[in-house]
From TrEMBL:
The active site is at residues 22, 98. Pfam families: DHquinase_II (PF01220). It comes from the Bacteria. The keyword Amino-acid biosynthesis applies. Substrate binds at residues 72, 78, 85, 99-100, 109. The lineage of its organism: Bacteria, Pseudomonadati, Bacteroidota, Cytophagia, Cytophagales. It catalyses: 3-dehydroquinate = 3-dehydroshikimate + H2O. This is 3-dehydroquinate dehydratase. GO terms for molecular function: 3-dehydroquinate dehydratase activity. Homododecamer. Belongs to the type-II 3-dehydroquinase family. GO terms for biological process: amino acid biosynthetic process; aromatic amino acid family biosynthetic process; chorismate biosynthetic process; quinate catabolic process.
Length: 150
């Protein structure tokens, strides 16, 4: 089963950025660990700091071979109607993830523009938020993917 992890702005700085919030591991190192932990899944990873590039990637993987998208849109979560519309338009289910507990941070982070069109939201478990999302997809039978969303 093909699953893609999409990371948005500033997540390329994991391991060096605000270590008290985001930890000291790079995502690339963590991604290698995820691939080893989920050998039955065909995992890929994409990161961009650009809104339009993320939308293009959602359009590219949102129909067809990919059975799930794990998406940490970073700050675009709270501001992007365009990304929200892209998630709404595609068929592949999306799980919104956040490394930090966004509800324990600034008030503007408490609102997600994306959540209404996602299968679910996982936040506050550090990088393990991605593992939890992968466990969700791994445990579903193919015909169940996308059940109850959109």
């Amino acid at each position: 089963m093909k699953i893609i992890i999409l990371n948005g702005p500033n997540l390329n700085l994991l391991g060096t950025r605000e270590k008290s919030v985001y930890g000291s591991r790079s995502f690339e190192d963590y991604f290698e660990e995820l691939k080893e932990a989920f050998p039955a899944l065909e995992l890929s990873y994409f990161q961009s700091n650009t809104e339009g590039t993320l939308i293009d990637k959602l359009h590219e993987v949102g129909f067809g071979d990919y059975k799930g998208i794990i998406f940490n849109a970073g700050a675009y979560t709270h501001t992007s109607v365009a990304i929200s519309d892209a998630i709404k338009a595609i068929e592949t289910p999306v799980v919104e993830v956040h490394i930090s507990n966004v509800y324990a941070r600034e008030a503007f982070r408490h609102k997600s523009m994306l959540a209404a069109y996602c299968t679910g939201v996982i936040a506050g478990f550090g990088l393990e938020s991605y593992r939890l999302a992968l466990q969700y997809f791994e445990r579903l039978k193919p015909k169940q993917i996308g059940f109850g969303i959109k």
